[in-house]
Design goal:
With about 110 residues, the protein is an alpha+beta fold. Helix content is about 20%, strand content about 35%. The chain has one domain. The longest helix has 17 residues.
């Protein structure tokens, strides 16, 4: 799945706590699947660079009404086109995805998660 958004990217390189995520205005985005036009409301958790590629960690955003399960995270590759528009790409290579998850988890643990 390829998605795009024009949401401002945070420059903070550390993993944010849940309280910090809720307090920040620029961590919520609507991303659009460019193949089918479906919109997803996503909340950003973290972003990092690994092996020269940028990655973003996010989860489906749902208002906290007590009626939904714990969110599942999504790790996607983040890229920008020539005009600066940001795109997120699914990671199809299982080894790359496992490495990205391990990197995120190390950052999460180091941040006290």
């Amino acid at each position: 799945m390829k998605t795009r958004t024009t949401t401002k990217r945070t420059t903070d390189s550390r993993v944010m706590t849940r309280k910090e995520r809720v307090a920040k205005d620029d961590v919520l985005a609507v991303i659009v699947d460019i193949d089918n036009g479906r919109e997803y409301y996503m909340a950003f958790i973290d972003s990092f660079t690994m092996n020269g590629r940028d990655y973003v960690v996010m989860y489906n955003y749902e208002p906290d009404d007590g009626n939904h399960q714990e969110p599942e995270i999504a790790i996607m590759r983040s890229e920008r086109n020539a005009s600066g528009e940001q795109f997120f790409k699914s990671i199809k290579n299982k080894n790359e995805l496992a490495d990205a998850f391990d990197q995120f988890y190390r950052r999460f643990e180091a941040a006290g998660g």
